[in-house]
Amino acid sequence: MVLTVWEQPSAAAVAPRVSDFLCDLPGPVAIHLHGHDRSRCRVLVTLLHGNEPSGLEAVHQWLRSGKQPAVDTVFIIASVAAARTEPLFYFRQLPGKRDLNRCFSPPYTDNEGLLAQAILQHIDQCQPEAVIDIHNTSGSSHGFAVATSDTPAARCLVGLFVDYLIITDLQLGSLMEQPLACPVVTIEAGGALDDAADFVASAGLGRYLMAPHVFAEERPLTLFQHPYRLELLQHSRIDYADHGLRDRDVTIRKDIERYNFAALEAGAALGWLGEEGLTHLQVVAGDCSHPVEEFFQVRDGILSARSRLHLFMATTRADIAASDCLFYFVTEPVPVSES
Ligand SMILES: [Zn+2]
Questions:
Q1: What distance in angstroms lies between residue 37's CA and the mean position of ligand 1's atoms?
Q2: Of 8-12, 33-37, 320-324, which range is least confident?
Q3: Residue 339 has pLDDT above 60, yes or no
Q4: Are the C-beta atoms of 225 and 335 separated by less than 8 Å?
Q5: What is the pLDDT of residues 217-272, one digit of tens each?
Q6: How far is the CA of 276 from the centre of ligand 1 (A)?
Q7: Model confidence at 86: pLDDT above 50
Q8: Do 217 and 286 share a structural domain?
Q9: How far is the CA of 21 from the centre of ligand 1 (A)?
């Protein structure tokens, strides 16, 4: 079976250390807990990416507490093999394999696709009222949420965890894009190495599991609509430094993570480009690409934004920048009050 079901584990059956708990798992697993109200179910998915441990930490803490959730609860822990490949919690996916959170759209042909399909089928069988998918960003960041549409239900779920919501129509093959029969939101709890991210995940998980009704209360959120992705072209070379590197097509300033959720002013240096300038970069939104020159410029080899931008998910992991993207950005956020 691609996804093993583990029914009602006792607190004593869960290893005290999260690393031991991870190593004890049979592989991708769905852990079922009985709630006070057995007529409803909520799902929490985590570790779709093996290098993003905050959701697993929160699940582990909950299981060790022995508490009973308000309604039936299913924890789906996915990329167990990638997470426990040494060094622990380093690999987003196993080397040479596809990113699991890009595999949820058919066809399901390889092992990652089949696991994604099994997760979708399991969620479908559970008929949950909500699905939360907890991740970490690779770089240090505030916690934020991502959803495909701005609905009252999505805002209620997001408000249990964080204050920022990004609405995206990017079609990447992620879990939240799939036509599930209930609201689904992605929580980026914060940087994989940030202690605050573990707190965001565990405090939010506690609220998600304890609330008798998760759609009862909306909290004010700041909304970012339809971000763009700045991507590196295949075979282009990128690295991070405090000056331009000769043997790289793109060098990004090594303190780029401090611009996550902070404004990046027009003209402020983002990094340095080689002789071929902007040709190694592309900007993507939705299904279409935009001219890089619309948002970015290069002067004397220095890369900067043409207008004020807000960045998120900026990382200094060159492998992740190359395989996924350098960062997401929007031109200005929209404050939203309670409605
Ligand atoms: Zn992730």
A1: 31
A2: 320-324
A3: no
A4: no
A5: 888 999 988 899 999 999 999 999 999 999 999 999 999 999 998 889 999 999 99
A6: 32
A7: yes
A8: no
A9: 20
List, in sequence order, the alpha helices (H) in the chain. 18-24, 54-65, 80-84, 111-126, 152-159, 195-210, 318-323
> Looking at the structure, do residues 20 and 114 belong to the same domain, yes or no?
yes
Q: How confident is residue 139, by pLDDT bands cut at 50, 70 and 90?
A: confident
Ligand 1 centre distance from Cα of residue 25 (Å): 20
What is the CA(53)–ligand 1 centre distance, in A? Answer: 10
Residue 333: predicted pLDDT: 59
User: Does 339 map to a domain?
Assistant: no
The residue among 225, 252, 286 that closes a domain is 225
Residue 19 dihedral angles phi and psi, to the nearest 5°:
-65, -40
Q: How many Å lie between the centroid of ligand 1 and the Cα of residue 136? A: 6
Q: In which domain, by residue range, is 280 found?
A: 228-332
pLDDT of residue 288 exceeding 90, the answer is no
- Are 158 and 282 in a shared domain? no
Cα of 51 vs centre of ligand 1, distance in Å, is 8
Q: Which of 225, 243, 276 represents a domain boundary (last residue)?
A: 225
Same domain for 204 and 277? no
Give the DSSP per-residue string, 166-191.
EE----S--GGGS--SS-EEEEEEEE
**Ligand 1 centre distance from Cα of residue 168 (Å):** 15
Expressed in angstroms and rounded, the spacing between residue 312 Cα and the centre of ligand 1 is 13
**Claim to verify: residue 21 and residue 158 sit in the same structural domain:** yes
Report the share of the chain in percent with pLDDT over 70. Answer: 97
- C-alpha 36 to ligand 1 mean position (Å): 31
What would you report as the CA-atom Rg of the chain, rounded to the nearest whole angstrom? 20
Q: At 1, is the pLDDT very low, low, confident or very high (cuts 50, 70, 90)?
A: low
Cα 186 to ligand 1 centroid, rounded to whole Å: 9
Burial of 260 (0-12, 13-18, 19+ CB in 10 A): buried
Residue with tokens 């167990």: 80
CATH number at residue 198: 3.40.630.10
* Number of domains composing the chain: 2
Cα of 135 vs centre of ligand 1, distance in Å, is 4
Q: Are 180 and 256 members of one domain? A: no
Residue 68 forms part of a structural domain: yes
